[in-house]
Amino acid sequence: MLQKIDAGITYPKGFKAKGVKCGIKNLKKEDIAIIKSEKRAVAAALFTTNKMKAAPVIVSESAMENPQISAIIVNSGCANACTGEAGLRDAMNMAAITAEVLDIRYSDVLVASTGVIGVNLPMEKIYSGIEEAALNLDNESDESVLRAIMTTDTFPKQSSYEFVIDGKEVRISGIAKGSGMICPNMATMLCFITTDVNISPEMLKKALNDATNLSFNMITVDGDTSTNDMVCVLANGESGNKVIDTEDSEGYKIFARALNNVCIDLAKLIIIDGEGATKFLEITVKGAKDFKEAKQAAMSIAKSPLVKTAFFGEDPNWGRIVCAAGYAEVDLDADKISLTIGELPIVIDGQKSEQSLSEDFQKNLKEIMAQKEIVLSLDLAAGQAEATVWTCDFSYDYVKINGEYTT
Amino acid sequence: MLQKIDAGITYPKGFKAKGVKCGIKNLKKEDIAIIKSEKRAVAAALFTTNKMKAAPVIVSESAMENPQISAIIVNSGCANACTGEAGLRDAMNMAAITAEVLDIRYSDVLVASTGVIGVNLPMEKIYSGIEEAALNLDNESDESVLRAIMTTDTFPKQSSYEFVIDGKEVRISGIAKGSGMICPNMATMLCFITTDVNISPEMLKKALNDATNLSFNMITVDGDTSTNDMVCVLANGESGNKVIDTEDSEGYKIFARALNNVCIDLAKLIIIDGEGATKFLEITVKGAKDFKEAKQAAMSIAKSPLVKTAFFGEDPNWGRIVCAAGYAEVDLDADKISLTIGELPIVIDGQKSEQSLSEDFQKNLKEIMAQKEIVLSLDLAAGQAEATVWTCDFSYDYVKINGEYTT
Q1: Is the ipTM of this complex over 0.85?
Q2: CB-CB under 8 Å, A83 with B310
């Protein structure tokens, strides 16, 4: 019933957007964008849990006190984080100027920034960028918006679906940026989602929380949690479905599934584009005491630099995987744990499986390790809960990209 | 009063040792060693907190139920971890054979192993190695022991001191191995310390706990905590001082300081030899609510791959440092934190300092970043406590070494 569509951020009815070049770092690509709903939209948003919150996060959190939003202003190339009072003033001015040129309320604007920390925004450039974007809003420039939010991303990330509620065609579309500094606890990246569904603020908030917990909170590139990140969704009701205001409704279920899909698609794209990544790893931990411990063990494996470098080297060093589960501080039965890579049983009852000694097995394992996408499953033998997280390997290029970021 | 001495593990009176080549992986270097006290020594030991405990750890923990130890048998090249019941039998046999050839009790032997996980020990080679080492124990082969415990270490690590208690000359000497998989919570590496001090088991245990908390528990290379690690100290009383049995005694204070020095020296050497490390980073967090939070914030910075790669690139990307403190889940005042690199005030009151804009400052900063040893200090402005941790950068070589370890 959910149909995946190849379309961008203005695919849902009643949205316009534009990304332009204002030269924050240089003029090579778009670096500032506006996403606008023709009428005020119901909004839900989640923000970084980092205590060093960037100025735009503070401004947007305050805007979300009333969950009605008309526009998002976002820039790349400068995070406006650790910029003190001047930074906060700049973020407020971004919202104010955007509100002015779009003739909307100040408190109906979300502000987002991404890029280098500790540098102040070049506000003259920002102002002219906002004006140019505002004057040129349309629904044919989705790619300019995608480019405007990219930093070290190597490809743009979007996901769109179409579905029917009450006989009305409903659309949802999300875009995201982020490849380094990706970690769970939501503090992960920028993600903007537009939809023309008609939904109450409470239900939109619940749907976003649930979707985030199964997507952006289940990924890690390097364990770092940034100062700037946010996920937000604007729902303008233009599809004309009867308002979704209970969890039990059919409409909620369909919408929640669509939002889930968008978020998981984008989360996986972020991992595929992990800085320097050559492998996409799906790590499932089963047999855990509860979901929290399952996730904790899976994240411990996903964050281990020893595991990540082993996969880069296509080295099935399973000892590092069970070792990472061992220090995750979760219940496990060391003599009963089992591990599969691909479908191959590597570890059974806490030790190397007999099958794994055969030449055929080793040949198959080598083929699996050579693939770009690899699936691991570890059974802790301590309960019934499971969780799946996604991560990537650590390569020479990760070191290169991050050793040379500002210089 | 403490005199640093260039000497090895048999420098304290009444110890002999030997490392030999038994060919666990190949015959290129020594891979098995015995350290022996002529008479039963009082012992204290700390073991990995990883739940996937290696077999030798299980055997040694059991030996420590009575803190009298005569010998340590250690091998490199194979960790005997995740090896099931057979592995446990092998570790017990290592102790049994060592006890037999040395004519001591089974429960007076500590067993330690390091190397690849999930592979069983080649026991015939181990037996012949034990016999050869036992027959050739002396106090002129300290370097053979150092080589026998090395894995990816690029240089041997030892530290010795001499001091006086009750007019008696007392000696202490420690050796360590470990460069990857180094993380706090003690689960860090192998460290064997010998001393001829006369001390009670209780006081020795307290001194080792305290020293470990300020040394091995304050370092991290990659955040991974291994299955095998242990720190142990044997005190045989041969120096003839009056037994140290209270914390308040002058003797305890001198000995504790000496043990502290040995442990901090070895911890720092492990970091300097961090896999692929090009920089040694000393990170102090001040102004924390308590020691626990100070350490937590310092470790969050020390473990951040983004921080570690920035230092590799000699890039003073201070935003990543405050960002890592921001997600450490500790109290901090975002508008009051300050950061120095070297002695240079980079961040004051939560933002880039004015001084840092000058050309001279930038030139000095560049020089500091180019040094091999770099000191950071972050003030959280939330209390009075402080903690210092040591770590290294992440380089191309870290990825190379760990991507190609077993293959």
Answers
A1: no
A2: no
